[in-house]
Task: inverse folding
């Protein structure tokens, strides 16, 4: 597949146009409620972008707007630079994979995969060849004559992916494709999808998920969504390491978000803590800030051990998770969790322990729910809302 | 059971467990025998005995040698099959429209259907007679402007029309139910794969609701072969089916053996056609 470039179904106006572009797309539900709020976002051609968020975040709505099943009340959807907002779903040249597989139960695996080729008028002889090719790509060649009902969930999803890819679409939409699979199958399929992404470098993929692991493992970029809005959009790694918003920090990697007072150019005094934390990035004095600290960047200090940053935490819960101990506790009124490599002597509930971490493990985050004041900022000026912020992060991450 | 005081209490229990369900099963069986099987046996017995109670099979030969009787059988089958074809086509079409074409008042239409099904069959026919009959609204209006009467209800087509009107909901309702269970995601995926509406209906939707269509069709076939009220009320004098023959022979002339033979033939035709229909649709579904 990767050797010969797939024939494009959608016409392109040059390779520089993004594979998928949302321009201020707003979608209203049947009851008039806004279910996607002025989304502006570009997915570079050939990349996988994960739409990540809790249920009701608007991520599936965004995907359905690209597919054409949800008409925007305002804004435009572009595929490879072409405005498809008013184009029928069947003329958009997209492939779609859904959580329930949605295989046609009365057709064989091969007939399922051939469906898109037959309805687009590909000749019967070529169809056979391309069905074989598509099934081979997902490792299902020997199942061509089987019925979907005789396949396992993972196999059915492979067939669904082959069916979506057989017409060689420029855009592949994946709506929670692994949510119906058990954990072990899911990690196997993640690896498969990553391989497909490498083998099909020209196919732009939009991947809706509520699982941060899937998003981090697969996506080039992640768009974090909440309450019908885009919270933050950026390259997966930078979004994980340096989230702009508290919501992103919590949702992508379950970070600790602590509130504190600025005590110096690089120092913040966390409420309830005796001494200030040191930061790498500068903060401006005289106000409260929010800090994100990843639970797994923390180590337990014992005896006379000391860290650059230290927090005394009253332990409220200790969970053994096999390879790690998950310790939860409080600093004053704020909660704090640490993921520690399995301890020989775990702390007891009610005791006070000291956790240590380095200045580069502390990231300043904002909270879009409350108005962001200028002196909160990282380096740039204040950003009032999530949509502005997304453009900001977009500008930073786009080449 | 209480007499065996010394025995462990576990012993009597299996017996009650067996007899309980057995008794429970005997009750419906007895009801079935009394209400269903006995009259059928009586009917069969009547069909092979003459009015004096002696065994007489000559009537069978007489009847099957009579072209009028054979024509009655053929008419019954013809009307049944035509009605079924009409109901399946109309019912499936209407169900597809109701399910896929969004229009206000869908709920009202479905509700009205449920009410229509609860009407006695002759009521619809009577209504049709009022509109299309020889002295109905349409012919009255035509006569007023000097045009000849239309005989829509005369003959078998009148019967078929009335039966299609009455029996269509029996196809429509199960098909509508099956359509609601068709995964909308399948339809969307088919659309994203480039299929148009007609292709989606033909290749994705219809195959999935085929069992419902077959079930509804079989039901209509059964009802139609045994329909009495509609045939009588359309007033098509030259249309005689097995049920009306049974009626006229038994009530009109007191020819009980002929009536019984016609009834047995009616049952045989019903069961035979039902089995054929089931075999055909099963092969189609596979």
Result:
């Amino acid at each position: 597949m990767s050797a010969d470039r797939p024939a494009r179904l959608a016409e392109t106006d040059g390779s520089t146009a993004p594979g998928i572009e949302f321009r201020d797309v707003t979608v209203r539900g049947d009851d008039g409620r806004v279910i996607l709020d002025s989304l502006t976002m570009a997915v570079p051609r050939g990349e996988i972008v994960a739409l990540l968020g809790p249920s009701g975040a608007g991520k599936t709505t965004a995907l359905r707007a690209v597919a054409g099943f949800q008409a925007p009340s305002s804004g435009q959807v572009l595929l490879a630079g072409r405005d498809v907002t008013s184009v029928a779903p069947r003329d958009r040249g997209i492939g779609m994979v859904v959580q329930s597989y949605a295989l046609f139960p009365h057709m064989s695996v091969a007939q399922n995969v051939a469906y898109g080729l037959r309805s687009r008028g590909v000749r019967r002889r070529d169809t056979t060849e391309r069905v074989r090719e598509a099934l081979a790509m997902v490792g299902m060649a020997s199942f061509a004559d089987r019925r979907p009902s005789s396949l396992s969930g993972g196999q059915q999803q492979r067939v669904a992916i082959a069916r979506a890819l057989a017409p060689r679409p420029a855009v592949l939409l994946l709506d929670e494709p692994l949510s119906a699979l058990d954990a072990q199958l899911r990690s196997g399929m993640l690896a498969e999808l990553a391989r497909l992404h490498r083998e099909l470098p020209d196919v732009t993929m939009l991947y809706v998920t509520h699982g941060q692991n899937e998003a981090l493992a697969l996506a080039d970029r992640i768009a974090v969504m909440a309450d019908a809005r885009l919270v933050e959009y950026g390259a997966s790694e930078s979004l994980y390491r340096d989230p702009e918003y508290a919501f992103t920090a919590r949702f992508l990697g379950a970070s600790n978000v602590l509130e504190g007072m600025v005590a110096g150019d690089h120092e913040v005094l966390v409420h309830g803590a005796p001494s200030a934390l040191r930061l790498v990035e500068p903060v401006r004095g005289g106000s409260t800030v929010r800090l994100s600290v990843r639970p797994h960047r923390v180590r337990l200090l014992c005896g006379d051990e000391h860290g650059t940053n230290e927090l005394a935490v009253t332990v409220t819960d200790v969970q053994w998770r096999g390879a790690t101990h998950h310790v939860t506790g409080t600093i004053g009124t704020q909660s704090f969790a640490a993921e520690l490599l399995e301890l020989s002597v775990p702390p007891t509930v009610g005791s006070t322990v000291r956790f240590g971490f380095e200045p580069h493990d502390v990231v300043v985050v904002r909270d879009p729910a409350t108005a962001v004041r200028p002196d909160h900022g990282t380096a740039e000026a204040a950003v009032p809302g999530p949509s502005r912020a997304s453009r900001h992060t977009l500008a930073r991450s786009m080449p | 059971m209480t007499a065996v005081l010394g025995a462990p209490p576990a012993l009597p229990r299996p017996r009650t467990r067996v007899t309980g369900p057995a008794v429970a099963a005997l009750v419906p069986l007895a009801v079935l025998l009394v209400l269903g099987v006995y009259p059928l046996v009586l009917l069969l017995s009547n069909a092979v005995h003459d009015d004096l109670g002696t065994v007489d099979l000559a009537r069978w030969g007489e009847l099957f040698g009579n072209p009028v009787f054979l024509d009655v059988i053929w008419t019954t089958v013809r009307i049944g099959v035509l009605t079924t074809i009409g109901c399946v086509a109309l019912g499936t079409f209407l169900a597809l429209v109701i399910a896929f074409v969004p229009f206000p008042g869908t709920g009202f239409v479905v509700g009205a259907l449920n009410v229509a099904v609860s009407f006695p069959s002759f009521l619809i026919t009577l209504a049709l007679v009022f509109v299309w009959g020889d002295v109905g609204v349409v012919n009255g209006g035509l006569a007023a402007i000097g045009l000849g009467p239309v005989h829509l209800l005369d003959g078998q087509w009148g019967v078929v029309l009335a039966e299609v009107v009455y029996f269509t909901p029996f196809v429509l309702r199960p098909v509508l139910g099956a359509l609601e269970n068709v995964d909308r995601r399948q339809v969307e995926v088919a659309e994203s794969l480039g299929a148009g509406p007609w292709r989606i209906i033909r290749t994705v939707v219809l195959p999935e609701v085929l069992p419902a269509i077959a079930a509804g069709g079989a039901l209509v076939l059964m009802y139609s072969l045994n329909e009495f009220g509609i045939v009588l009320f359309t007033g098509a004098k030259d249309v005689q089916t097995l049920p009306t023959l049974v009626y006229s022979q038994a009530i009109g002339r007191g020819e009980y053996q002929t009536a019984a033979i016609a009834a047995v033939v009616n049952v045989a035709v019903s069961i035979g056609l039902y089995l054929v229909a089931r075999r055909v649709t099963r092969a189609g579904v596979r």
